[in-house]
Amino acid sequence: MMDYIQILSAILGSFGFGIVFKMKRRRLIFACIGGGITWTIYLVCQNYGMSSFISNFIATFFASAFAKAIASRIKTPEIIYIITSAVPLIPGSSLYYTLNAFLNRNIDLAQHHATTTGIVSAAIAFGILLFTILYNVTARTILHLKNQQKK
User: Fold this and answer.
1) Where are the alpha helices (DSSP H) in the chain?
2) For 41-72, what is each residue's pLDDT tens digit?
3) Chain-centre distance of CA 140, in angstroms?
4) Which domain holds residue 45?
5) Count of structural domains, the chain
């Protein structure tokens, strides 16, 4: 039951960011679906005992794939779908606890939370980066092979 509440929260978070980006209704639905799918993938990875880095990386990789597929289908920039789909993964609480520990001069705890924040942020960045690289290399290779066949 708790997983359903988390997934619903992810959908609502993506919905909220979609509103901030002034997305139209049709596009907003896909943003919500992306957030729900991303968080579901994250939860599945966590349930299989994967680390926070790997779970966030895999979820972000699939969020990027979803964003690319939807954006090309309905002809919109994919960045808005990447952002709204990845919103549930953003380490907001960890960042809050980092700043709180710094303000309370608890440096050890601040370093712990800062490390967690950095790891999750890096996983999100690497997930987007790896998908983009793989997609571009694959697309160029396919285009090159098609051009070779025409000759």
Assistant:
1) 2-20, 25-47, 52-74, 78-86, 92-103, 107-150
2) 999 999 999 999 999 999 999 999 999 999 99
3) 25
4) 2-150
5) 1
